């Protein structure tokens, strides 16, 4: 068998499938949530109603002629998708375009008074301010006296399992977190990850973030740890240029997370101070590249991003959506080689992800059999399993 067998691109047009459910149920629920988030005026509400009708029963319409990113979306395939049902084009494309249109409906791209107002901010803030976040930050005090490798491992796992903090997913997967996973970690290349970032190295770490709040906070803690322990000399944090997939992190969310850390008692505040000075002296940089919201796999990344990933000692991609984009949003046989599926990536790459969609590569036949025996195919999407894969 070749390393990368043929695998079909995932569409949302199979009733009863996970992607179909996202388009038919999750997207309408997100529109309802956004309607409640702010006292939007009649024009915005009308635009939201029109989007609801379009994305459930209509076809994909082009961006207006004066949209500043119209050319970019044409490059990303808008002309081939226009006029087709949202269900019949690649699922990744439909989902991405949905968020672009949702933001336009509420006036996010302006001009006007609502320009730049994140419709998901109330939900993100509520999560960041929740007592669970206090408990997670307080747990940092218990790590203080551990030897560095153990502290590092704990923070890596905090960042990995922090990927639970996906507010869009929670709209359609209530109770997923409570189910007992077997085995919880379906692939674990963490030793290879640590070997790429030895103490005293001159490494450049790129971390491509996923969700804000209770995922971004542990991502920042991991970065602070790697910088403080000399496992990385510099780090670049990639966030989204605009709100996306409900809870994806933007620069504003980084600042909120930083404030939360700095205002916390105990060890958390120390991490906050370290991150603040790393940002101030340039050891930590934040980037919001347009391609971070592209409806395409990373294989199609533009040259400047490719050069940045090529220059990094390690690029860590967080979360389910980044995983889909990394290996390609296809129905791979689960034992497809992760190394082969990511061979195009220009440097060492790690995926830290909870399983929340059907895309998966790099499983051993034994683990796949164990998962299927215990759960049928539910393990792929129910958000109870995680993986650390490195190439
Ligand atoms: O990237 P994340 O936050 O881990 O997950 C994103 C997600 O919730 O959204 C998609 C469905 O809308 C799925 O890929 C996945 O379940």
Automatic annotation (TrEMBL):
Signal peptide: none annotated. Keywords: Hydrolase, Manganese, Metal-binding, Methyltransferase, Transferase. One of its GO terms (molecular function) is phosphatase activity. InterPro entries: ARMT-1-like_metal-bd_sf, ARMT1, ARMT1-like_metal-bd. It holds the Pfam family ARMT1-like_dom. Residues 23-366 form the Damage-control phosphatase ARMT1-like metal-binding domain. It comes from the Bacteria. GO terms for biological process: DNA damage response; methylation. It catalyses: beta-D-fructose 6-phosphate = dihydroxyacetone + D-glyceraldehyde 3-phosphate; beta-D-fructose 1-phosphate + H2O = D-fructose + phosphate. Its cofactor is Mn(2+). Belongs to the damage-control phosphatase family. Sugar phosphate phosphatase III subfamily. PANTHER family: DAMAGE-CONTROL PHOSPHATASE ARMT1. This is Protein-glutamate O-methyltransferase family protein.
């Amino acid at each position: 068998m070749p390393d990368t067998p043929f695998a079909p691109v995932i569409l949302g047009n199979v009733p009863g499938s996970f992607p179909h459910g996202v388009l038919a149920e999750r997207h309408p629920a997100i529109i309802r949530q956004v309607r409640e988030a702010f006292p939007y005026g009649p024009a915005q509400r009308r635009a939201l109603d029109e989007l609801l009708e379009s994305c459930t029963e209509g076809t994909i319409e082009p961006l207006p002629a004066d949209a500043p990113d119209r050319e970019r979306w044409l490059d990303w395939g808008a002309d081939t998708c226009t006029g087709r049902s949202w269900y019949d084009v690649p699922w990744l494309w439909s989902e991405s375009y949905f968020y672009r249109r949702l933001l336009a409906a509420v006036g996010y791209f302006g001009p006007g008074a609502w320009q730049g107002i994140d419709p998901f901010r109330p939900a993100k803030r509520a999560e960041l301010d929740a007592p669970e976040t206090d408990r997670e930050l307080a747990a940092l005090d218990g790590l203080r006296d551990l030897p560095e490798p153990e502290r590092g491992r704990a923070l890596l796992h905090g960042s990995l399992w922090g990927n639970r903090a996906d507010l869009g997913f929670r709209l359609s997967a209530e109770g997923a977190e409570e189910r007992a996973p077997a085995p919880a970690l379906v692939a674990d290349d963490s030793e290879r990850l640590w070997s790429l970032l030895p103490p005293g190295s001159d490494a450049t770490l790129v971390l491509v973030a996923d969700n804000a709040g209770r995922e971004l906070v542990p991502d920042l803690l991991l970065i602070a740890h790697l910088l403080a322990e000399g496992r990385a000399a510099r780090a670049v944090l990639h966030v989204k240029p605009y709100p996306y997939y409900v809870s994806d992190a933007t620069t504003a969310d980084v600042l909120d997370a930083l404030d939360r850390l700095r205002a916390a008692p105990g060890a958390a505040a120390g991490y906050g101070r370290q991150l603040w000075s790393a940002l101030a002296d340039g050891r930590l940089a934040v980037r919001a590249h347009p391609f971070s919201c592209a409806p395409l796999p990373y294989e199609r990344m533009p040259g400047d991003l490719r050069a940045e990933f090529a220059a990094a000692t390690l690029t860590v991609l967080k979360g389910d959506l980044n995983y889909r984009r990394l290996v390609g949003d296809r129905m791979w046989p689960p034992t497809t080689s992760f190394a082969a599926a990511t061979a195009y990536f220009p440097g060492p790459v790690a995926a830290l992800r909870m399983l929340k969609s059907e895309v998966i590569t790099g499983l051993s036949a034994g683990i796949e059999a164990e998962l299927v025996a215990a759960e049928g195919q539910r393990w792929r999407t129910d958000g109870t399993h995680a993986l650390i894969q490195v190439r």
